Amino acid sequence: MFGTQSLINYTLVAWLPELMRFNGISGGQISIVLAMYSAAGMPVSLLLPCFLETATHRSQIVMSIVVGLLTLLAAVLMFWQSSMPLVYWYYLSIITGAMTAFYFIMALTTFPLKTISPTRTAQLSGLTQSGGYLIASFGPALYGLAFKSSPLGIMQIWCFAIVIALCTLASFVVIKMPKI
């Protein structure tokens, strides 16, 4: 979950401005859209830890499904990005900003909730974050190669949707994981 969330976040932060510019969005509007991407994560970051600590596994899974489906909708709409109005880019930035914050905070919050000692928490956190950032490091470069050959890229959109689905599925594994 940490790796897929980071992959989505780093790739979007690196390439969303260029993708929007390619689709005729002005620099000022791109700045606002990116600010909304960042701002969308703030309420999630503040509220999610309390929710995760008190919610049942079922409630957590339902929340993860809702977040995953809303983000998949944004990804599917990318197939028509060249004809989408500016409001679509706002939707994409708000949903993906909230989604990346959701899965990032879920990962960080579940480390202490799923471990029996601070030592295990540190071990799990270190392993997960190291592996996650390694996975994420390939995203922007691979997207750049694909964008160069096909800016509206059907392949990139499918990959985006698959990574969103993998992130959502990985969250189910984390939610169901017993304490270690």
Which overall shape is indicated by the principal axes computed on the Cα atoms?
globular
Instruction: Provide the β-strand percentage band.
Output: under 5%
Uncertain ranges: none
**Computed Rg:** 17 Å
Order of helices and strands: HHHHHHH
Work out the helicity level.
over 70%
Mean pLDDT: 87
CATH class division = Mainly Alpha
Q: Structural class, judged by helices and strands?
A: mainly alpha
- CATH architecture descriptor text: Up-down Bundle
Keywords: Membrane, Transmembrane, Transmembrane helix
Transmembrane segments: 30-52, 61-82, 88-109, 130-147, 153-175
Protein name: Putative transporter YycB
Descriptive keywords:
0% strand; globular; mainly alpha; Growth Hormone, Chain: A; 180 residues; 7 helices
Describe the protein's architecture and organization.
This protein is an all-alpha fold and 180 residues long. The chain has a single domain (2-176), classed as MFS general substrate transporter like domains (Growth Hormone, Chain: A, Up-down Bundle), CATH 1.20.1250. Helix content is 84%, strand content 0%. It has helices spanning 2-22, 27-54, 57-77, 86-113, 118-137, 139-149, 154-176. Helix 4 runs parallel beside helix 7. It starts with a helix and ends with a helix. The mean pLDDT is 87.
